[in-house]
């Protein structure tokens, strides 16, 4: 079973610390590691990366999406999104539209 620990903090107690390998983040990471290779192989058949697929998936669902909303929905940084959009645009899979509300050059 799991070892239980109690840590004393000034105004609270944290109990029931489970072993690291049984923690939720580690279990989720192992699950992701088990599932994603099959998906990555599928994406590769279509010359896509996982981040590219994430963006295509959100664009398919919403049709139009701002860069800020796409970054939040796909868990990709806005800086990474720029290159992803560039590559997908070069493949003819997405089209960049300039916002009429954004006056930056």
Secondary-structure map with pairings?
Layout: E1 6-9, E2 12-15, H1 24-45, H2 50-62, H3 67-74, H4 78-90
Antiparallel strand pairs: 1-2
Helix pairs in contact: 2-3
Walk me through the structure.
The structure is a single chain. This protein is mostly helical. Helix content is 53%, strand content 8%. The protein has helices at residues 24-45, 50-62, 67-74, 78-90, and strands at residues 6-9, 12-15. It has a two-stranded antiparallel ribbon with strand order 1-2. A hairpin with a 2-residue loop joins strand 1 and strand 2 (12-15). Helix 2 crosses helix 3. The protein is flat and about 55 Å long.
Summarize it.
The protein has 105 residues and is mainly α. It is built from 4 helices and 2 strands.
Strand content: 5-15%
Total helical elements: 4
How large, in whole angstroms, is the Cα Rg? 21 Å
Q: How many strand elements? A: 2
Strand count, sense and closure of the main sheet?
2 strands, antiparallel
Terminus-to-terminus distance? 61 Å
Element-by-element helix/strand order: EEHHHH
Helical content (DSSP H or I, runs of 4+)? 40-55%
Low-confidence stretches: none
Q: Average pLDDT across residues?
A: 85
Record the strand order, biggest sheet: 1-2
Shape: flat
Structural class: mainly alpha
